[in-house]
From TrEMBL, chain A:
InterPro entries: Amidase, Amidase_CS, Amidase_dom, AS_sf, GatA. Residues 28-470 form the Amidase domain. Pfam families: Amidase. SUPFAM superfamilies: Amidase signature (AS) enzymes. Allows the formation of correctly charged Gln-tRNA(Gln) through the transamidation of misacylated Glu-tRNA(Gln) in organisms which lack glutaminyl-tRNA synthetase. The reaction takes place in the presence of glutamine and ATP through an activated gamma-phospho-Glu-tRNA(Gln). The keyword Nucleotide-binding applies. It comes from the Bacteria. This is Glutamyl-tRNA(Gln) amidotransferase subunit A. Keywords: ATP-binding, Ligase, Nucleotide-binding, Protein biosynthesis. It catalyses: L-glutamyl-tRNA(Gln) + L-glutamine + ATP + H2O = L-glutaminyl-tRNA(Gln) + L-glutamate + ADP + phosphate + H(+).
TrEMBL record, chain B:
Keywords: ATP-binding, Ligase, Nucleotide-binding, Protein biosynthesis. The keyword ATP-binding applies. The gene is gatC. Allows the formation of correctly charged Asn-tRNA(Asn) or Gln-tRNA(Gln) through the transamidation of misacylated Asp-tRNA(Asn) or Glu-tRNA(Gln) in organisms which lack either or both of asparaginyl-tRNA or glutaminyl-tRNA synthetases. The reaction takes place in the presence of glutamine and ATP through an activated phospho-Asp-tRNA(Asn) or phospho-Glu-tRNA(Gln). Its EC number is 6.3.5.-. It catalyses: L-aspartyl-tRNA(Asn) + L-glutamine + ATP + H2O = L-asparaginyl-tRNA(Asn) + L-glutamate + ADP + phosphate + 2 H(+); L-glutamyl-tRNA(Gln) + L-glutamine + ATP + H2O = L-glutaminyl-tRNA(Gln) + L-glutamate + ADP + phosphate + H(+). The lineage of its organism: Bacteria, Bacillati, Actinomycetota, Actinomycetes, Streptosporangiales. Belongs to the GatC family. This is Aspartyl/glutamyl-tRNA(Asn/Gln) amidotransferase subunit C. Heterotrimer of A, B and C subunits.
Amino acid sequence: MGAELIRMTAAELGSAIAAGQVSAVQAAEAYLDRVALAEPEVNAFLHVDRETTLAQARAVDERRAAGEDLGPLAGVPVAHKDVFTTTDMPTTAASRILEGYRPPYDATVTARLREAGLVVLGKTNMDEFAMGSSTENSAFGPTRNPWDASRVPGGSSGGSSAAVAAFEAPLATGTDTGGSIRQPAAVCGLVGAKPTYGGSSRYGLIAFASSLDTPGPFARNVLDAALLQEAFSGHDPRDSTSIDAPVPPVAEAARRADVAGLRVGVVKELSGEGYQAGVLTRFQESVELLESMGAKVVEVSCPSFDTALAAYYLIAPSECSSNLARFDAMRYGLRTGDDGTRSAEEVMALTRAEGFGPEVKRRIILGTYALSSGYYDAYYGSAQQVRTLIKRDFEAAFEGVDVLVSPTAPTTAFPLGERTGDPMAMYLADLCTIPTNLAGNAALSVPCGLAPEDGLPVGLQVMAPAMADDRAYRVGAAVEAALRDRSGADFLSGSPYAV
Amino acid sequence: MSAITRDEVAHLARLSRLALNEDELDHLAAQLDEIISAVAKVQQAAEGDIPPSSHALPLANVHRPDEARPGLTPEQALAAAPAVEDQRFRVPQILGEEE
């Protein structure tokens, strides 16, 4: 029965639980057993606690038995990126400075999924404070890609992507600041979405770059991702940048899955030199597929996208240098060197030097430089102007097309250790995803095949205007259905971890 | 673009309260120089009269109603503190001898 439960989609599992064919406890047990089996190789989780998970599952079964009206995912397990606060599990952001930290409150995302009856399997590994594209910046060891254990699972939400791809969880949460959901989803063969900025709440999310950070879903198919996104989205008075408007109908769009008459723009700047040949091959095929399904495809130019990566690596470090000032060794987290002779300032500097890893230090220093008097206008100021140009490029493009498409990442999953010594090479992994974060609109990555040269997953990125997330889901679902019809199997059935 | 010196990195580390060691300072000076040279292209792209965007949404100040709401208890607030004394956060000496 275990394998049968794990093979189900989250939507099917939720229906089976609602119909009384399966209990939430049985679903949790099946997944906990699977976690125990896969973790020695994959290392997707930072924290798993069987008893806490089973207690949550029992509570959901009791709520249902008491006649409570629960949502479509009630009883379905979920894994949370370790950047969302949870009162019943530690929250570390994969940093030594927060090792063992127990937050006093739940993030809105975790609270809403609790309320909807989802059962938390554990907290997943990530790049420290979500800074990275490979999960190698975790203070607690790297996560491995279930398709090929010698390769990275992407990042920063690489624990979440690896957990779902290894069938250790049907669903997972992540955060996307420059591509940290879409890129790991692409390289692990999953669906991952970055909702419209302000569509999902940042309350209780440990901040990296507040004007960019966006919580979003991971799933093995488009409908499951849509159901998860709907379950945690919507206005939150505790987040001042939360949008007070109805949640885009993403589940309905995922079921509709039709692109007839839809105008699709191929972004000229997100292609060409520096892109892996097999990625471009699969991307081109999916564009032709969309055309064959009745979409109207045109090429669109967004010239300022060429400067997006540069602007991002000024804006994100600037915001991070300010946000991470809160780790001061005074109120929570690590404190070292407090021997009675040192001042608070000295203790603070020693604690931060010991508690933060190399990438976090690099970005704090970079951000401090970009915000320094004398350099502010030249760096942070110019980057903010580029941000305006990128928004204008999107606005102009969406006057002529309904969605934009590109590869999600320039390459498939790269080998562990390949880019750790070269920050600029690592940063290039987010080349295609960053423009959407800077403009704040919605985007989704959906698998579009395996690269012929290495047999690894390739992602198609679909970008939509702000609060039109449903358009990206519509296109993603259409591509998913067409590829399933063509191959006769679900995408992950080709993975070594297929159940 | 002028190269970033080791002394500049040491100054930035002091501003950001990071007690970096000698190796880290050397390493970061070289890396920062490479990164800054790469991202400096924003200056050419941003030439002309372009308003800056600090944010994706056109939001001004957002206020909540001024109503009392339950908050954390002192026990909850202090639960993760490195050191506690008399229901307060105990911190190292803040003022120097000369102050």
